[in-house]
Amino acid sequence: MRVGIYGATGYTGFELIRWLGRHPEAEIVFATSRTYAGKRLSDAFPTTNDLQLIDATEVDPASCDVVFLCLPHGPTTIETAREVLAAGARVIDLSNDFRLRDPQIYAQWFKHPHTAPELLNEAVYGLPEVYREQIAQARLVANPGCYPTGVLLALLPLAQAGLLDGQVIVDAKSGVSGAGRSLSLKTHFVETNENFAPYNIGHSHRHIAEMEQELAAAGAPVHVIFSPHLLPVNRGILSTIYVRLAQDLTPEHVRTLYTERYAGEPFVHVLPQGQLPTLSHTTH
After folding, report:
1. Is 64 a catalytic residue?
2. Residues 8, 78, 146, 164: which is the catalytic one?
3. Threshold 0.90, pTM exceeds
4. What percent of the chain is modeled with pLDDT above 90?
């Protein structure tokens, strides 16, 4: 499988290259970087290999079977997706440009119209625990957001069983790398170290739209109250979620529901009764 990567030197690009390096069928044909074009991957991440990095204008997407877009959301990424699809390669987009199916909802949350609305209906939401068969056939896959991935995996067993009643309250904490690798005051060491702060509160975080869309698709059209916080750690997300159930269930019944739903799923681990999750379970 021939793979191309746009935006290889951000945190998502770096993590993607690590995973592809473990895949026996993946061959990286090209990797782009605006900042490190003409240099090697090890110049950006010294612990990695000497993969040559090039400018996006130098690539031929037709040389690939699948292309990953690890770029900031916006018209440039959308146009790149169009070009790659026209060249005959499949696209897996890691931005939030293709996650929402409704162009009007996209415009509501992003404050501008989508420049390729015809692709929104074609894009498959890339959560394999729900859309595995559709992902395998898709030309365009929208990689889910970080917060929605955790929230949806936590709630889908209840949603699909018709057990969610009313609104959902999500209290979530994220590491600093979720903000990306670009420099900014809010992720400066002195600003985040020994600190803990909420952000994008008041129903303003764009990931809410993803959560509500996918919960509705699972049979639970609920209202999500979402409060994200920034932790002074490198990576990881921990969400505490409050729900009202449509019927009374014992903890044992709930746990059985989850173990049966996620049996055989390699990326989801249901902990033993009484054991609580920590960031170190997934980040190291």
Report:
1. no
2. 146
3. yes
4. 78
